[in-house]
Amino acid sequence: MRPYVICHMMASLDGRIDCAMTEQIDDTNHYYEALAQLGCPSTLEGKTTLAMHYAQEGTFQPARAHEDAGLQLYKAVEAKGYAVGIDTNGTLRWDDNTTELFGRPLLMILSEHTSQEYLDYLKQKHISFITSGRNGIDFASAFETLRTVFGVERLAVVGGGHINGSLLDLGLIDEISMMYGYGIDGREGMAAAFDGRTLSSKPIRLTFKSVEEQDGIVWMRYLVEVKK
């Protein structure tokens, strides 16, 4: 059993999601108001987004030889909602009070290849974590742990494009919540709402759920069709 997962994104009309750009086409906080309506106390963000907006500069520098941590979990605190982050190999550096930074406790998902030293570092920072998967992160298993151990029943994936694409390919997203602001990006190399899928990937079929307009911003919701 895993959480119900909603991918909630703000994009320009051409589907780009650069945060500095989207802030200019959603200056009334409709994105966050819609996120609150989705009823997801916990959110998930990829490493790129975390490094850009939340983590300290630089990368974690180990002081001893690498020792794979293997399969582990650590629950620093009981909470109604978590800021879930992805950091496959354990390299992000954090402030002492991440709960204040995110507004709720931080919970990291990492691979089993993460060093034991880095997990000890997270414990010192009182940051919860799950390690799952030897060759990259086993998201299906990690999501089950989110539900069974941390009580996460609804999870909003809020960035970025590559983590969105990966979870979509794995069949771990139940619903798409897309908000399109009144602007076009068009800059070369900017990430799309769903990115990084292979050229041989087939389109993911969706079922329309709802649409509404809010001060020029269009909010559309779709259910992801189950693969047969």
Automatic annotation (TrEMBL):
Listed GO MF terms: 5-amino-6-(5-phosphoribosylamino)uracil reductase activity
Keywords: NADP, Oxidoreductase
Bacterial bifunctional deaminase-reductase C-terminal domain ranges (all copies): 92-213
The protein's annotated pathway: Cofactor biosynthesis; riboflavin biosynthesis
Pfam families xrefs: RibD_C
Protein's recorded name: Deaminase
GO BP term, pick one: riboflavin biosynthetic process
SUPFAM superfamilies cross-referenced by the UniProt entry: Dihydrofolate reductase-like (SSF53597)
Biological source species: Pseudoprevotella muciniphila
